[in-house]
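Priority: low. Protein: Class II aldolase/adducin N-terminal domain-containing protein. Input follows.
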Amino acid sequence: MSPVATTTVTQIKPPTATLSLRGDSEKPKENAHKTDLAKNPFERVWRGNREGTIRMGGVPKFDDPYEERKWIKEHMAGAFRYWGKLGFGEGTAGHITVRDPVLKDHYWMNPFGMHFSMIKASDLVLVSPDGFVTEHGAQLPINEAGYVIHHTLHKLRPDVVAAAHCHSIHAKTWSAFGRPIDIMQQDACLFHDNLSVYENYGGIVLSDQEGKNIADALGPKNMCVIMQNHGLLTLGRTVDECVYLFALLEKTCQQQLLAEAAEANGLKKRIISPEDAAYTAENNGYWETMYNNFTPEFELLKKETNGEFLQ
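Result:
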């Protein structure tokens, strides 16, 4: 049993922007924020034809929960293949869970000790609310720490469908600082007012209390957390959103490490203003847009594997 950590949560406030003027007479540039926007943020990021017959597809809706279950498992398997492709494997560490649309208090999870790059939809395990493998999925063991973290998150965050955690290299490196990332590039704006830091490390997670500590650090709305000395955890309204956010935050941790090294050698980084970061997050960070951001990777994986992971 791991020692119980005392929860310390960093409430991340948007950083104050610094503006470097090239001359005393030069005034700060006013933001060119468009205000007459479509009500649905997803409708703001793409454009079709004048007649409205060319449209982007959003998250599909299902009348049959068993068809939705099949779709979820296929996208989960694609998410794991994506992690494998990015080199996120670290022994038996790492797990993604997604709520089941049929048995709504159950969730799907990867089997213990199977490489991400090998996982197929039929390899996924359906876990009961009390953490045991059920007869409805693959008959394989699951990761104990994964159960402890995820069952607490699914209980305390009913607004989310999916949760993901693994030990990617740049994330676990940056996590040693116990600091948030700086909003210094457009993609990073998706983490504006959406990222927590859990500032304790209580050993390998085998205690329900540690799972609750992580959930408390996330709070009622944040979708991402940096766990000090551990790595990242992200949430999503679909597994696609969840895994896209995870990969983006891993890349942003890499960017942060590069920027810190450059700043240590005399270069000064410039932070995006809270106003601009919030505007970008509002328009680019909508959950259905996040789903579509993973679609190119999912479709490429299908082509590269001849759809083998869908089985």
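The chain has seven helices and eight strands. Residues 61-310 form a domain with the L-fuculose-1-phosphate Aldolase fold (CATH 3.40.225.10).
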